[in-house]
Amino acid sequence: MSTPTKPSIVFAHGIWADGSCFSKLIPPLRAEGYEVMSVQYGLDSNVEDVAATVRTFGRVSSPILLVGHSYGGSVITAAGTDDRVAGLVYIAALGPDETETSQGQQDKFPATPVFSQIEVADGRVWMKPSGIGCFCGDLPEEEQEVIWATHFAPAAELFLHNAPGVAWRTKPSWCIVANDDQTVNPELERFAAKRMGATTYDIDSIHVPMLSHPDFVVDVIRAAAAGV
Questions:
Q1: 15 with 71: CB under 8 angstroms?
Q2: At 5, is the secondary structure helix, strand, or coil?
């Protein structure tokens, strides 16, 4: 009898971040024998970010477990329609439907505190230093400072257009709801998870549980991997 093949794991990051935001998850997963890739994309347009994610699928074996954080949930919702993807994991993430943009989904819920701490300049959306607590205030101060210093500003119109396709309608999903999130409204996360019919986990975390509670997130990914 052949040994079941582990799925590969592909990560998709959110705004004010890049692929290194999953740095606490990648080593333990690789040590357990998973192929892992964390996509790097430009946050210039959702269509381009989805295309970059799909290109990454060619660098790992199928089946793929696609994991998205924050805006990365919009990315995996479209990219996950690819036949090589077997399941989806949403971490404090958006999960739009066909008729919704990232902005449109957020507009259905009260705005979170971080969006009073931003500045639009040179066509990009920058986080002010005062906003870092809303983003990752449960991390040690040194980590917060590094995240702010390296935060990757998205194009100002990134949330206004989404690539087509809604993978969660046809593929199994797992969702982590960050109960103390001040960037994506936790009620949005909860609503999206229920609409997906996702297996849902709650954690008392601000917006980046993969950094503040990495062991918890790895456990959810393990459960999802077993489920696909």
A1: yes
A2: coil
